[in-house]
Design a protein that fits this description.
binds ligand BJW; 3-stranded antiparallel β-sheet; alpha/beta; binds zinc ion; 2 domains; 6-stranded parallel β-sheet; 252 residues; Rossmann fold; SIR2/SIRT2 'Small Domain'; 18% strand
C-alpha cells in the first residue's frame, strides 16, 4: 500500500501489459543502480574518478594500455560480485512468469538479471564474467589475475580481453538479431534505466513502436525514447516495476 502511494501507474498501461502476448523489456545500467552498481555515465568514484568510462571502453584504450583497462574491469567485476539483485530485477523475474512470451534484453554486463533468476536474457554488450582472446577469439570463464602479468590465451598465448562490446565494435550477431526480431514482433516494449543514446540498442524501441507496439519508459530522467513513448513512468526502477507487476497481476 505504501508503495502504491508513491508510484502512480496509468491504468491503460496496466491493461496493455496484462493483455500483451509478447513483451520485450530492455534494460540499461539504471536497473542495477539500486544494487549499488554505478551507471555507465555516473561520475566514477575513488581510484577511477579521473577516468571517463567512454574512454576506457574502447579497443583503442585496450591497445594503448591493457593493464589500465583490465584493472578497471577487475574493479567493476569485484564490485558486481558483491552486489545483489534488487527489487527491479526481481520484478522482471515475476513478469516472466505471467507474460506468454517475454524477451529480456539487457545492455548490462553485470549478470544481475541471471542471478535474480530471469531465465532467458539476451546480453547485447557481453559479460564481465567472461574473457576472450584478442587473437583467436577463444573464450574463457576463468583466468589468472595478477598485478604482474596480463592474462593470456591458453590456446595461442595472445592477450585475453574482457568479453564485452566496446565502442566501434559489432554486437554479438545472434544477440542483436534475436533482440531485433523480438522488437519487431512484440505488443509492448518496456525500456528501463537506460540513457538510450548508445546504438544499435537505442534503436530497438523505435523498431517496436514503428510496427505498432506500445512503448513505455521507466527512468527518473527524460530520455530520447521517453519523448516518443506512449507511457513515461518517471521514477526508479526498483520503485516502479514492483508496483507495475502488482497492479497487473494482483493475485500473484
Ligand atoms: C535509473 C536509475 C534507477 C539511474 N532506475 N533508471 C557517433 C560517434 C561515435 C560513435 C557513434 C556515433 N553514433 C553512433 C555511434 C556508434 C556507437 C554509439 O552509439 N555511440 C553513442 C555514444 C553516440 N555505438 C557503437 O559503437 C556500437 N557498435 C557499433 O555501432 O558497431 C558498428 C559496427 C558494425 C559492424 C562491424 C563493426 C562495427 C557498440 C556500442 C557498445 C557499447 N558498449 C558499452 C560498454 C560495454 C562494456 C562495459 O560495460 O564496460 O555498453 S558503452 C555503455 O553504454 C555500456 C552500456 O551498456 C551502454 C548504455 O549505457 P546505459 O545502460 O544507458 O547507461 P547510462 O549510464 O548511459 O544511463 C543510465 C540511465 O539510468 C540514465 O538514463 C539514468 O537516468 C537512469 N537511472 N538510476 C531507473 N534507479
Ligand atoms: Zn588465443
Amino acid at each position: 500500500m505504501a508503495l502504491e502511494k508513491q508510484v502512480s501507474i496509468p491504468a491503460p498501461l496496466v491493461n496493455w501489459l496484462r493483455a500483451a502476448e509478447r513483451v520485450v523489456v530492455m534494460t540499461g545500467a539504471g536497473v542495477s543502480a539500486e544494487s549499488g552498481v554505478p551507471t555507465f555515465r555516473d561520475a566514477q568514484t575513488g581510484l577511477w574518478s579521473r577516468y571517463r568510462p567512454e574512454e576506457l571502453a574502447t579497443p583503442e584504450a585496450f591497445g594503448r594500455d591493457p593493464r589500465l583497462v583490465w584493472d578497471w574491469y577487475r574493479w567493476r567485476r569485484d564490485l558486481v560480485q558483491k552486489a545483489e539483485p534488487n527489487a527491479a530485477h526481481h520484478a522482471l523475474v515475476q513478469m516472466e512468469t505471467h507474460v506468454h512470451q517475454m524477451t529480456l534484453v539487457t545492455q548490462n554486463v553485470d549478470g544481475l538479471h541471471r542471478r535474480a533468476g530471469s531465465r532467458s536474457v539476451i546480453e547485447l554488450h557481453g559479460s564481465l564474467e567472461r574473457a576472450r582472446c584478442q587473437g583467436c577469439g577463444q573464450r574463457a570463464q576463468e583466468w589468472p589475475e595478477t598485478d604482474e602479468e596480463l592474462p593470456r590465451c591458453s590456446l595461442c598465448g595472445d592477450l585475453l580481453r574482457p568479453d564485452v562490446v566496446w565502442f566501434g565494435e559489432a554486437l554479438p550477431r545472434a544477440a542483436i538479431e534475436q533482440a531485433a526480431a523480438a522488437a519487431l514482433g512484440c505488443d509492448l516494449f518496456l525500456v528501463v534505466g537506460t540513457s538510450g543514446v548508445v546504438e544499435p540498442a537505442a534503436l530497438l524501441p523505435y523498431l517496436a513502436k514503428d510496427q505498432g507496439a506500445v512503448l513505455a519508459v521507466v527512468n527518473p530522467e527524460e530520455t530520447p525514447q521517453s519523448e516518443v513513448a506512449d507511457f513515461f513512468l518517471p521514477g526508479r526502477a526498483g520503485d516502479v516495476l514492483p508496483v507495475l507487476i502488482q497492479q497487473a497481476w494482483p493475485q500473484a
